[in-house]
Design goal:
There is one protein chain. A hairpin with a 3-residue loop joins strand 1 and strand 2. 31% of the residues lie in helices and 29% in strands. By secondary structure, the chain is an alpha+beta fold. The model has no long low-confidence stretch (mean pLDDT 88). The protein has a 6-stranded mixed beta sheet with strand order 1-2-3-4-5-6. The chain is globular, with a radius of gyration of 15 Å.
């Protein structure tokens, strides 16, 4: 994905106007967590997200700078820990207010369509978080009145 970064003009852009989101809950196998959904507002933030989740979201830089797409990071913070864990990246078509993509590590989908069962079992707690992130995305989408394209 570093090769994609070479083709990107690094820049920043204004917010799409959608609101960020926070949600706290207890997950049986993990404990207390705080979910956050934050808009990524620069090529640098897209690059960091892509590196964290091993996908090429940085290629969306031009669409974000043009105001056509907004990219959001769904992450969680475990109780008592400082580090946020990136779980899911979401693309929103700004004009139609539609979620066009939601991808986890290596472009996995939160509903598991794109990965084999054996691959998911090797992911440990990440598979649990990826599945749960779909619910968090639905809560935010309902609040922001977003439809779902995919």
């Amino acid at each position: 994905h570093r090769s994609r970064e070479q083709d990107v003009l690094f820049e920043s852009w204004p917010s799409s106007g959608l609101r960020p989101y926070q949600f706290e809950e207890e997950i049986e196998t993990i404990g207390r967590v705080r979910w956050t959904i934050q808009e990524l507002l620069s090529s640098w933030e897209l690059s960091a997200e892509g590196r964290a989740l091993d996908h090429c979201v940085v290629s969306y830089s031009n669409q974000c700078a043009d105001g056509k797409t907004s990219i959001w990071s769904i992450a969680l913070q475990r109780w008592g820990r400082e580090r946020r864990e990136n779980v899911l990246t979401v693309a929103v078509d700004v004009k139609s207010k539609a979620i066009t993509q939601a991808r986890g590590r290596c472009n996995m989908q939160p509903d598991g369509k794109s990965s084999k069962k054996q691959q998911r079992e090797g992911l440990g707690s990440y598979a649990t978080l990826l599945n749960r992130s779909s619910h968090i995305l639905k809560l935010w989408a309902a609040r922001e009145q977003l439809s779902r394209d995919n």
